[in-house]
């Protein structure tokens, strides 16, 4: 259960945000009426998104494009970043649970330590796979001819 101080701070933030939101937004004009799209109509936002991205896709497919290397760098950043975050969180949770188990039953410390080290090695291997994917995207990209 959350501490009373935490609950009080959360409630205070929610009240402050509600107060600020009530004073920040301007109400609509009284005579303003909204226009409804006919049923089954394709949304205008979707059409404009398709129209805006079509030239970009065509340009990315052309020879000598800079989009593929640039997006490969972004993908490499996501690959290593997500792999490191996921592995770090998993290793932290596993280590914490192992310490809890050792503190409850010190006689099984050797068994838990061995299982922990093995699981940490497997988690770290997933981070290394993310690093390999990032290096392939940066230096040996199969999409660049």
From TrEMBL:
MF terms from GO for this chain are: lipid binding; proton transmembrane transporter activity
Which SUPFAM superfamilies does the entry mention? F1F0 ATP synthase subunit C (SSF81333)
- Where is the protein situated, by its record's location annotation? Membrane
Question: Which residues belong to any copy of the V-ATPase proteolipid subunit C-like domain?
Answer: 74-137
GO BP annotations listed: proton motive force-driven ATP synthesis
Q: How the protein sits in the membrane?
A: Multi-pass membrane protein
Keywords carried by this UniProt record: ATP synthesis, CF(0), Hydrogen ion transport, Ion transport, Lipid-binding, Membrane, Signal, Transmembrane, Transmembrane helix, Transport
In which broad location class does this protein mainly occur, judging by the first location in its UniProt entry? Answer: membrane
> Is Membrane given among the entry's keywords?
yes
Q: Which GO terms describe its cellular component?
A: plastid; proton-transporting ATP synthase complex; proton-transporting two-sector ATPase complex, proton-transporting domain
Q: Where are the transmembrane segments?
A: 41-61, 73-94, 114-140
By its UniProt entry, which Pfam families does this protein fall under? ATP-synt_C
Question: Quick one: signal sequence residues?
Answer: 1-22
Gene3D superfamilies per record? F1F0 ATP synthase subunit C (1.20.20.10)
Its function, per the record, reads: F(1)F(0) ATP synthase produces ATP from ADP in the presence of a proton or sodium gradient. F-type ATPases consist of two structural domains, F(1) containing the extramembraneous catalytic core and F(0) containing the membrane proton channel, linked together by a central stalk and a peripheral stalk. During catalysis, ATP synthesis in the catalytic domain of F(1) is coupled via a rotary mechanism of the central stalk subunits to proton translocation.
Q: Which family does it belong to?
A: Belongs to the ATPase C chain family.
Q: Return the protein name.
A: ATP synthase F0 sector subunit C
The source organism is Polarella glacialis (Dinoflagellate)
Q: Species lineage, top-down?
A: Eukaryota, Sar, Alveolata, Dinophyceae, Suessiales
């Amino acid at each position: 259960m959350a501490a009373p101080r935490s609950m009080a701070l959360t409630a205070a933030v929610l009240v402050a945000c509600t107060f600020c939101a009530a004073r920040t937004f301007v109400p609509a004009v009284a005579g303003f009426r909204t226009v409804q799209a006919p049923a089954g109509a394709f949304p205008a936002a979707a059409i404009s998104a398709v129209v805006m991205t079509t030239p970009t896709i065509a340009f990315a497919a052309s020879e000598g494009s800079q989009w593929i290397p640039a997006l490969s760098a972004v993908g490499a950043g996501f690959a290593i970043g997500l792999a490191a975050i996921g592995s770090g969180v998993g290793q932290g949770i596993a280590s914490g649970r192992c310490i809890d188990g050792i503190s409850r039953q010190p006689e099984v410390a050797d068994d838990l330590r061995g299982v922990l080290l093995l699981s940490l090695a497997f988690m770290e291997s997933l981070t290394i796979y993310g690093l390999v994917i990032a290096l392939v995207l940066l230096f040996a990209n199969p999409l660049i001819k």
